[in-house]
């Protein structure tokens, strides 16, 4: 009996010790679970806070943009860099800013087709489908996503080599749903049809636009659409506009027909090339149109006029493109601001003219030239990455495209977060510009 009791005591002691160990093990586990729950709660709270902020920002941006008669989106040309514009549009859409006029040149014209040619709720998806399509090789299978991602992020030297290889692929075989090499390639002095005098055939692009865009919607007038191109025969710059022209795929393709890569496009007996040959910035068309209207314009540039001085031949080629295709945006904005200031000041002076002089012919002429409308130009300018070379406009890699897209989305979100940037100016010119990269560095509020 004593032995049994002793055994019971020992068993009880072992049980207590085991319970103590179990309790000791449970405490860290419970603490870990509590920590995880706390972290999850914090994450959910932060997500809810960010969603509330995004909703408030969207409400504010939508309200601020609604005060303008025209909300314009002007899209520069720049080939593969155009995914940046798609990111900008996504940010505008999520903020409730709805452009009622879209003007584009070259790749900007193609993005214009995708935006204006779809219902608002489908536009971002169609833009993404377009860019995911044309960033694949025309014939060969694309690299597996994980391989491309690994090479792209393996270091600067490997990234530069890899992206150069992708650009070379575009030259050799073209891009899916966009362009393919002509075979046999044209001989330099061999005469033929103007519509085939190029190294590449853009027939696949026509099929892509017809698949992804509703041209009846484009021509409905829901959104005004303007496309810049150059008449090859006259050398004149023209705008195809859905207010006076029924736009077809050919109009959009003509705006991006950059020779000698792409052939001139025939439209109603005339041949047209890429508008970027003369002017790569459609902002002037929007600001100078009459009758003038209070205008909020988002100018999305793919080439920066500012940049480092190159020290090797490869970088020289890239810098030449930057300067050539940035199309003197600063000069255009400076000129527009000065002319609008004269009109605005003239309007203020005329308001002080006594009634008995109103019928004077010079007063009547001044009245025609004056303008009290206000303009706000929001610049969004793509900033070149370190790994990009002179081939950045025809380097259609999927990973690079997504990075361009993300840059555009980041820039427009940062822009729309700035208080007062969508409001009408109260200065003596009635004209103001903003640039998130310039103004956040404290360089003032004037033209870039």
UniProtKB/TrEMBL annotation:
Domain PNPLA, chain residue ranges per copy: 73-287
Statement: the UniProt record of this protein carries the keyword GTP-binding: no
GO biological process, any: lipid catabolic process
Chain positions of motif GXGXXG: 77-82
GO MF annotations in UniProt: hydrolase activity
InterPro entries, A to Z: Acyl_Trfase/lysoPLipase, DUF3734, NTE, PNPLA_dom
Sequence motif GXSXG, location on chain: 104-108
Active site: 106, 274
Composition bias type Low complexity, residue spans: 13-38, 45-56
Short motif DGA/G, span: 274-276
Keywords recorded for this protein, A-Z: Hydrolase, Lipid degradation, Lipid metabolism
Keyword Lipid metabolism set for record: yes
Region (Disordered): 1-58, 424-448
Protein name, as recorded: NTE family protein
Source organism per UniProt: Paraburkholderia bannensis
């Amino acid at each position: 009996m004593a032995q049994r009791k002793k055994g019971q005591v020992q068993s009880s002691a072992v049980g207590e010790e085991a319970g103590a160990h179990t309790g000791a093990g449970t405490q860290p586990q419970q603490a870990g679970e509590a920590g995880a729950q706390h972290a999850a709660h914090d994450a959910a709270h932060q997500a809810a806070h960010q969603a509330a902020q995004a909703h408030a920002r969207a409400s504010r941006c939508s309200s601020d943009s609604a005060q303008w008669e025209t909300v314009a989106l002007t899209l520069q040309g720049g080939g593969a860099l155009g995914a940046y514009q798609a990111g900008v549009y996504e940010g505008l859409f999520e903020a409730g800013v709805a452009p009622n006029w879209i003007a584009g040149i070259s790749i900007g014209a193609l993005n214009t087709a995708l935006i204006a040619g779809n219902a608002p709720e489908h536009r971002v998806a169609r833009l993404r489908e377009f860019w995911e399509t044309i960033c694949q090789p025309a014939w060969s299978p694309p690299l597996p996503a994980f391989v491309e991602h690994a090479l792209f992020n393996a270091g600067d030297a490997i990234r530069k080599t890899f992206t150069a290889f992708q650009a070379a692929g575009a030259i050799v075989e073209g891009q899916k749903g966009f362009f393919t090499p002509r075979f046999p390639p044209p001989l330099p002095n061999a005469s033929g049809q103007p519509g085939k005098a190029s190294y590449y055939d853009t027939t696949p692009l026509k099929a892509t636009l017809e698949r992804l865009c509703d041209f009846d919607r484009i021509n409905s007038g829901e959104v005004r659409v303007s496309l810049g191109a150059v008449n090859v025969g006259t050398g004149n710059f023209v705008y195809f506009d859905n207010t006076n022209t029924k736009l077809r795929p050919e109009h959009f393709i003509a705006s991006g027909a950059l020779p000698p890569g792409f052939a001139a496009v025939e439209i109603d007996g005339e041949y047209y090339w890429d508008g970027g040959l003369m002017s790569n910035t459609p902002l002037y068309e929007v600001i100078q149109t009459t009758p003038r209207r209070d205008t909020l314009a988002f100018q999305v540039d793919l080439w920066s006029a500012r940049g480092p001085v190159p020290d090797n031949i490869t970088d020289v080629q890239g810098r030449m493109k930057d300067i050539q295709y940035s199309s003197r945006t600063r000069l255009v904005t400076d000129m527009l601001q000065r002319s609008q200031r004269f009109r605005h000041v003239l309007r203020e002076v005329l308001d002080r003219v006594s009634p008995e002089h109103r019928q004077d012919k010079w007063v009547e002429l001044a009245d025609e030239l004056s303008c009290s409308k206000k303009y706000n130009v929001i610049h969004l300018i793509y900033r070149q990455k370190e790994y990009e070379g002179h081939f950045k406009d025809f380097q259609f890699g999927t990973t690079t495209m997504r990075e361009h897209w993300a840059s555009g989305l980041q820039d427009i979100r940062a822009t729309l977060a700035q208080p007062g940037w969508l409001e009408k100016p109260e200065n003596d010119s009635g004209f103001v510009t903003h640039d998130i990269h310039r103004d956040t560095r404290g360089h003032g509020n004037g033209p870039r």
